[in-house]
């Protein structure tokens, strides 16, 4: 660190939780972070080398001033960091973006409150429940509320003065039983608010309490011989039972919990949130997170948790997550489940996050085709432990049948797609018999000797179809040419899809569903197809020419003349002497005719 002012600031930082802010030379806020120990966290930026992370290296080079705010706990630091990031939006902080504007259910802040579907959040004291990503769930809830609790849906100002002045008339909704007509004083406010209380309980997922209350009312009505009222209450109870059976149930989770999961790649992460209340999943939402400094999954998940809990004013005391979070003094229970119902609901959250990631990536790829190429190449770079993106890949395969007509194929992929104009065939010149190792050694040497002589660019990755033997042979040729180590090379075994590196004792296994393995398999299959096609053509051609050339006195030109006229060796065999004589002359015709009919 060369800035003495920063050294003084860091040395004076307390070892307590807090939020730190980095400013550049123009006093522009460029980064906000949280810390359990401010001095350790901030000093780590300047003590560590960041050569492996260019963005962090650039951030550190721009820091000219540091400011900080002390808080009581790390959880307070997390919440304050979240508020400040949203307020100032520093350049190097991650960005959170909602997946869409989901619908909510609103209990309007008014006398005789209405309950309705909305996508707008208006800060007027109204209550909002949701958001609901599942459209079926919100309509099921609204239908249940409408069937169970008669409420008004008009927008009249039902003040006490207006009702007493008899400004309104009962409408059709009252006639058909959907409303008890508080507008004409047929329902008092206390009775109406009892329904609103039950609806709040329902929307919060407290079905047990709601059902118990309705069951008690039903028994009281039956005891008072009010059988019609008891029947209506029984119908409400059945509706609640039906709704609960259609809801996602998590049997062993009887208290409120927040469930979070995250999936990420080089540039993006997607965090999913599920709220479980009294054993029922009542909320779900997904956040897209755009990385700025190669943040860890734990950092991004912490940011998403703070965002969600503040947004929905969650008071759940337990959080279920897929990875440990260092929130010792947060007052929350952090659970990383391994089995049971908590693991099931975490898996459901992860499934939602992965699905949303897949959908988003598809959208980005449609808008920008280069996005898909960059994503796949970055994935291959990470999976195969390469230093550079494999824009140019070459794959080699040998083909022969019982040692006859051997041929090798080299196929080329550029930006993860076949570049057929760059495909090459090689017919071994120095190898006798079916020797795959020697053949691989020769064709690899010839391929890259030609590239070096023509001053062309070497590929970013070489793949050899075969196990350690073929790979070792290819490596010998690269060493002889002096380019071993300049180009990464690996072999792929045919049976178990094992990937071998020259100096690694054990193979590398890649997820069977990985796009990296699919690209490598496509390369291998394409090299095999290209080589087999050429091999068959050579074998067929050689078989035809050899049979006619075996006739003494018949040369290649005469054989071509016969095939040009008669199209196949079979027709040559079936032709009579006159026909053959007309095509190649009497003398040669007799030689061909005797060759095919001498057994007769």
Helix-strand category? alpha+beta
CATH topology of the largest domain: Nucleotidyltransferase, domain 5
What is the tally of helical segments?
20
Give the name of the CATH superfamily of the largest domain.
UvrC, RNAse H endonuclease domain
Low-confidence stretches: none
Mean pLDDT: 82
Biggest sheet, in brief? 7 strands, mixed
Level-1 CATH class name of the largest domain: Alpha Beta
Q: State the end-to-end distance.
A: 100 Å
CATH architecture of the largest domain: 2-Layer Sandwich
Integer-rounded radius of gyration: 38 Å
DSSP summary, beta strand count = 19
As a percent range, the share of strand residues is: 15-25%
Shape: elongated
Question: How would you describe this protein?
Answer:
- The protein is of the alpha+beta class and 600 residues long.
- It folds into five domains: 4-93, 3-Layer(aba) Sandwich (GIY-YIG endonuclease); 103-204, no CATH class; 257-365, Nucleotidyltransferase, domain 5, CATH 3.30.420; 385-538, Nucleotidyltransferase, domain 5; 550-597, 5' to 3' exonuclease, C-terminal subdomain (DNA polymerase, domain 1, Orthogonal Bundle).
- The chain is built from 20 helices and 19 strands.
- Helix 19 crosses helix 20.
- The model has no long low-confidence stretch (mean pLDDT 82).
